Amino acid sequence: MLYHVKMDVKIPLDMPKETADAIKATEKAYSQELQRQGKWRHLWRISGQYANISIFDVDNHEELHTILQGLPLYPYMSLEITPLNRHPSSIKEDDS
Amino acid sequence: MLYHVKMDVKIPLDMPKETADAIKATEKAYSQELQRQGKWRHLWRISGQYANISIFDVDNHEELHTILQGLPLYPYMSLEITPLNRHPSSIKEDDS
Amino acid sequence: MLYHVKMDVKIPLDMPKETADAIKATEKAYSQELQRQGKWRHLWRISGQYANISIFDVDNHEELHTILQGLPLYPYMSLEITPLNRHPSSIKEDDS
Amino acid sequence: MLYHVKMDVKIPLDMPKETADAIKATEKAYSQELQRQGKWRHLWRISGQYANISIFDVDNHEELHTILQGLPLYPYMSLEITPLNRHPSSIKEDDS
Amino acid sequence: MLYHVKMDVKIPLDMPKETADAIKATEKAYSQELQRQGKWRHLWRISGQYANISIFDVDNHEELHTILQGLPLYPYMSLEITPLNRHPSSIKEDDS
Amino acid sequence: MLYHVKMDVKIPLDMPKETADAIKATEKAYSQELQRQGKWRHLWRISGQYANISIFDVDNHEELHTILQGLPLYPYMSLEITPLNRHPSSIKEDDS
Amino acid sequence: MLYHVKMDVKIPLDMPKETADAIKATEKAYSQELQRQGKWRHLWRISGQYANISIFDVDNHEELHTILQGLPLYPYMSLEITPLNRHPSSIKEDDS
Amino acid sequence: MLYHVKMDVKIPLDMPKETADAIKATEKAYSQELQRQGKWRHLWRISGQYANISIFDVDNHEELHTILQGLPLYPYMSLEITPLNRHPSSIKEDDS
Amino acid sequence: MLYHVKMDVKIPLDMPKETADAIKATEKAYSQELQRQGKWRHLWRISGQYANISIFDVDNHEELHTILQGLPLYPYMSLEITPLNRHPSSIKEDDS
Amino acid sequence: MLYHVKMDVKIPLDMPKETADAIKATEKAYSQELQRQGKWRHLWRISGQYANISIFDVDNHEELHTILQGLPLYPYMSLEITPLNRHPSSIKEDDS
Asked: One Pfam family from the UniProt entry (chains A, B, C, D, E, F, G, H, I, J) (predicted)?
């Protein structure tokens, strides 16, 4: 099942650069592992923002929640979640 | 170049059903032709809404505008457009 | 899987009363059939509003969309959908 | 009488983990006691958010206020309260 | 139990004056009867607006809903409802 | 002249409890003195919020401003002020 | 006593030009009479908008309401009203 | 040329009282000098708020910007600026 | 003096195509004449919207208002106006 | 390709003046270099705000993102990005 997730990241201005870099590196590894598993199907950066738009393909709400809560940047994010359906006009196999 | 487009459709309540059906059929054909050309890369319905989220892959703003303005449902839509970049953590070939 | 749905109904002021009454009667039957099937798990009116809050228990986004789109009052509604998870502190069996 | 309550929790980023964990444990016990008493009738997590949706069944506004103000996480929450009525189309005994 | 209700009235510009006057007269009688019964405890006009702020004293949500839905101007109103408690600093007998 | 005032209080999370308690005690005395003088005509708590709705009966804007600015909790409040008129349908003597 | 009033005018697109012109002429006369009486102390157009900002100097809310309700364009306006006080730093005699 | 400016002031709660008082005193002198020069034509306090509404009469945007940026409280303010025209119905000489 | 203007156009769905085309043709001629005069300095379409962003270079608010009010599409537009200053970091001669 | 970018700057009140001045000086040099290269085509200050409106002319979203992310003030900014097309009514050579 597909979910559209918008993640806005706001790292506190006073977090030491090394701490921030370490969190971001863990985040990257975490994200890439989920991409390899096919759970995190798409990941795009919003131009000019510290924000991304992602498409998740998971079994249910529970799995989505567990994945999002596990994001190393989760405490610094605000999230918007939109359930997606296959569109009756889509001809793409991977749009559902 | 990628653009994230959210389309909300509001067909006037007093439009005759046949007119609406004809417009929707043209819209579907138009959309599928653009999908076949690779310009309209993804198309998802937002659950429970007469709205979709789409990813377009076009040469520039001009091409995007021409495509959107050509939508048979364009007069009944409100549109939100967000430019997308490849995300540095993406490992997907088709995310850019 | 659970979804929280808020439905706001706005029937056009110039719709004949009999038409409105007929739609509402069909809506009621449709809703009660889904309640009997266990799909529409809860249904409450928001005090003082022509609006309700509902909890749906369906297999996936697709089933939710089909049910909502089938509502006789759907053309006159605006809908807000929120996916729900079991809460780790809940002790109720029927909260998931 | 039923009330729909949405609770958004925002724990300060600099609260020590032990303090936060202690508050959350007390919150859980407090919530489960009220569930056992039948006052806190439903409790769901909003997917991907540190937020919940709850249905309270209490005698009056006063009792609701006392319960909410007693929440160990109350100082870190923002709350939205919506009074609910039995819906004329509901066939569920426990929807009022 | 007390409820704070804000009512904004928007009568369609093309409603004949006599129809509007008739509805308003019925509304006035309806409101005054409820004031006499003590259900509609306060009623103020918002300066410069076709809107009022009211305090209702009713047994429960159900009674409030029935009263509001019975307002002759109800189809032309938008309503905001806020449950009120006695304030611990109030010394007025009639503030609860 | 009547004014409807909504006060939302947000005391900083790091204010020592004794300081907060002292301010609240002064606030209570200040409010009750004004109630006794008839200036602060009604005072209700909004259920589940650290907020109140008040009706002031003062000579003019100036007096209202002086009273509000004198509130011990004023630095921690946000305020919304709405001038009120007697409603033509009110039958209550004390609604103006 | 001073009130800041922002008036936004939205005349229906299908009102005949002569009707609109007649209403506007009456509005102008009404406004100028009130200016001569000193009740409508200032009147400015917002650049590029069919909207104005006005300062009224009236005895009380009641008088303000009566004046505003009497505006020939009142049915086509939305109004925002803000009570104003003399500012402690003002040196202008006519700022109160 | 006239500009309508709304200034909302939010002084940090932890600024020492003497610092705040010193800034406010400088602000007052600065404002009064500009009033004497005729640049700051009107200045009113919004009732119950730490905010004002001002009318500036300056040569151009540049002069307005220089004046506002020079306000001692500028770092603690949020500002809304609205260009004003003479209103065709105004009969006041000093409304342009 | 420079003004940033955002124009959103909403032509009623039931306006006959010829009427709309005639208005748009007049609008184009009007706009191009002002561009030739140097008053309408820049004009861009917002991608995917029936909306534009324009920079006007006029003598004062009055001239801006007269130009905007004269737009053939003015009755169907909503407008946002922002005064602009030369930026201290600009090196462009034509940015002021 | 053209992008309209609105930048709002909020430097923390407790940043030492020398630090802020150093960042601003670097920002100015960075901006002027990009103006010389023709990438940052226009730059205006919004009157009365610590904010600017800019027009960028870059090859694609990627180049825009890289430029914006490189702004020395980027961590203190919020950004709004709007893709722009040549307007069919524009007669200016440099509007595309």
From this structure: MIase
